[in-house]
Amino acid sequence: MKEIQAKEIIETVKDLCIKANYELSDDVLYLLNEALKKERSGNAREVIRELISNADIAKKVRYPICQDTGLALVFIELGQDVKIIGGDLTEAVNEGVSRGYKEGYLRKSVVHDPFLRKNTNDNTPALIHTEIVPGDRIKITFMAKGGGCENVGAYKMFKPGASREEIEEFVVDTVKAAGPNPCPPIIVGIGIGGNQENSALLAKKALLREAGKLNSNKETHKMEKELLAKINDLGIGPEGLGGTVTALAVHIETSPCHIASLPVTVSIDCHAHRVKEAVI
Amino acid sequence: MLKKITTPLTDKVIKSLTVGDEVLISGTLYTARDAAHKRLLFESKKPPLDLKDQIIYYCGPTPAMPGRPVGSAGPTTSSRMDHFTEPLLKAGLKGMIGKGPRSKEIRDLMRKHKAVYFVATGGAGALLARHIKSSKVVAYADLGPEAIHEFEVLDFPVIVANDIKGRDIFEEGIKKYRRKSK
Hints:
The complex is a heterodimer. By secondary structure, chain A is of the alpha/beta class. Chain A has 8 helices and 10 strands. In chain A, the strands form 3 sheets. Chain A has a 4-stranded mixed beta sheet with strand order 4-2-5-10. In chain A, helix 1 (about 5-20) packs parallel to helix 4, helix 2 runs antiparallel to helix 3 and helix 6 (about 165-180) runs parallel beside helix 8 (about 220-230). The longest helix of chain A is centred in the N-terminal third of the chain and has 21 residues, at about 40-60. In chain B, strand 4 (about 95-100), helix 4 (about 105-115) and strand 5 (about 115-120) form a beta-alpha-beta unit. The relative contact order of chain B is 0.23. Chain B has a single domain (about 1-175), classed as Fe-S hydro-lyase, tartrate dehydratase beta-type, catalytic domain (fumarase, Alpha-Beta Barrel). The N and C termini of chain B lie far apart (about 35 Å). Chain B is built from 6 helices and 7 strands; from the N terminus they run βαβαβαβαβαββα. Helices cover about 25% and strands about 25% of the residues of chain B. Chains A and B meet through helix 3 of A and helix 5 and helix 6 of B.
């Protein structure tokens, strides 16, 4: 067994919260620069230029990229040969989020109850998804998920005989209904298969992939390309002002499922796509 | 066309604004999001501030680092405020800044009450914060980021999304760039 101190997890999560919110990753910056070349609308190009400049100010002058510093999503791959000492995993992650959001001057956007809605004042609890994997390491992936884009996701259970075209139509309709609200140009995560809750988790995991990287399965990556073209044909454009770049990327993950089911979840992320990972 | 305007907004300025105009605002903006709107309309016996001829900015900033007036401060989704907006327009509110489209009902009310809706770039909170020169909480401090802040801004960049002629930047823009998929 390899021993890992809980305080090391706290520090790692804290650093990820801050880094994700201040430093837009190179993959997203690359896609924004590509979008600037492809975009035909003048207003929309101005928006993209602002976003590139915003990322530069955020990193160099130290302001969070966006004021919605998100709900803290924490995906953990815990090696089965790891023993955590000096605390427990869930508490350590929440302590890391609490410190990261305080020390990083990040906005606290979590309320304690869906109806009573009192701010918890430290952005906890984080949403933690833990998987036990072989090995003696802990991989932590952090995502700051904004509210505007989270609010426009969708789920649908298809009949097992549904065609790819029917599923594509559902995805395109979801993006169309979302319109300007999720801060396009967006990244679209799609989970196909599993069951109800598993397809939702797959859609989120699809968002964690390096932005713009295609699925390794040939059929799936063909669908990603087709969907990207169809979504960009919607004309929504950056911030919904009209334009030719509505999405920067479409990521699909698939999973085995029941003979009676074909669940699909669409999860949308804004252009302030904030994902960072670390391995302990 | 780039226009520079100052607050409070006059009818003359409002009349001069057209959908798509890039505008730099200087003066005062009041922030309010969902929770502050709810209190303004349903819970406060007497409104804590006079919004006549003023602009509301749908924004909940991040905390300011020491020595700075404000943290990251971009717009939130405006449509969530649609069902709170009519009484404010009746009370003389003249401008709103947010992101995303407004309902048809609110667009009609803006025409009737001679008010405009601007969009600031969503997710550009760092860039926008640089145009905010001072900030103080003027109501509902217990709401934290959702409290009403008074921002003094200089050349704050926005685009006119709805003017008093009833035009809408989203409808027009999206229609122009929509293509039939192969």
